[in-house]
Structure formats: structure tokens, C-alpha cells
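Render Transcriptional regulator, ArsR family in 3D.
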Amino acid sequence: MLLEDDMAVTDVAHPFEMSLAAISKHLGILTRAGLISQERRGRVKWCKLEPDALRDASIWMQSFGQFEAVNLDAFERFLETELSAMPEEDG
């Protein structure tokens, strides 16, 4: 969805049958992983794809394709575990 343009968090959430809080949590994980960035413009939080980081992640995941299909749910759990162990950055 973010390939074409930046989007407000509410617009990202719109097509999904999940709460805004759940979408925000997912977007927070992607932000902490460096795959997207978020910025506040007035009262609205906007998301922007970070294509270089996404390309690096894609190359990294493709290396696992030779062994078995990548389970994205397991990958998300892995990222949550790894990122929760990282110290929070101020700012």
C-alpha cells in the first residue's frame, strides 16, 4: 500500500478487519525494524515506506527460500522478540 505514496495510519488501517490499535502496533514494529518511517503532520500520523530497508529485508528473506517457505507470522514474532530486547531510543 505504501509503494505508491505516504499514507495516514487511519488510511492504512481502513481495509483491514483489525482495530486501529492493532494496526498501530504492527506499524510500530515495522517502524522499529526500519522498514517504514512515521511522522506526525499536525494531528495525523503518516507512514512512509523505506525502500532501501525493505529491499535489504527482502534479500535476507529470499536466502531462507532455499530451505522452506518463510512463515511471515513467525517472522513477525521473531522481530517482536528481537526488538523488545533492544533499548528504546529517545526522540
